[in-house]
Amino acid sequence: MLKETVPQASRVAVLWSAASSALHLPTLGEVERAARAIGLKLQVLAVQGPEDFDRAFEAMTLKHAEALFVLTDPMLWLHRQRLAHLAAKHRLPTMHGLREYAESGSLMAYGVDLAGVVRRAAFYIDRILKGAKPADLPVEQPTKFELVINLKTAKALGLTIPETLLQRADQVIE
Q1: Does the domain formed by 2-112+144-173 have CATH 3.40.50.2300?
Q2: What is the pLDDT of residues 89-123, one digit of tens each?
Q3: Is residue 131 within 8 Å of residue 144, measured between CB atoms?
Q4: Which of 7, 106, 138, 151 has its CB 3.0 to 4.6 Å from that of 101, i.e. a possible disulfide?
């Protein structure tokens, strides 16, 4: 979707938190395979904390990144407004995995509908409180994903979001 939004992009930076490397290493492999399949060169940047953000964005600028993909992480989520500000400052269209990033000013987010996941968790809690053994309950994968596009950010970046992408969006922030 990021490539669809920025079709001329050939270099994409990927930002992730080194503190969550066990979580992110398998995802990074998938991102690298997907990037190769569509002809993108990746610049992978790990940060330890928010004190590394400025350095990471400067490195993206030096390597001429044309877009940014951020792996979801609790530390990065806490600093989503700062990340959106830095992406705007460096004129980088940015994609994340949770809607709150787009609501905080980033270009777009595509990921699991967390509200739906929480509702399903309530179902499991109810069953356990009524005596069900957790080991007897089925493991579920999320079934609903959502696409959120921030048109205010797109306009500020001089981007036109393709109509086909806007039609697929669950929410468009104007």
Answers
A1: yes
A2: 999 999 999 999 999 999 999 999 888 888 888 88
A3: no
A4: 106
pLDDT digits (tens, 9 = 90+) for 3-62: 999 999 999 999 999 988 777 778 888 999 999 999 999 999 999 999 999 999 999 999
165 contacts 5 by C-beta, under 8 angstroms: yes
Distance CA 102, CA 108 (A): 5
CB 166 within 8 A of CB 144: no
Identity of the residue numbered 142? P
The confidence score (pLDDT) of residue 81 equals 97
3-class DSSP state of 173: strand
Taking each continuous run of H as one helix and of E as one strand, the counts in the chain are 9, 7
Interacting residues of 165 by C-beta distance below 8 A, sequence separation 6+? 1, 4, 5, 147, 149
- Across the chain, the runs of DSSP E, i.e. the strands, are 11-17, 41-47, 67-70, 94-96, 108-112, 145-150, 171-173
Residues 6+ apart with CB under 8 A from 142: 112, 113, 116, 117
Neighbours of 66 (CB within 10 A): 18
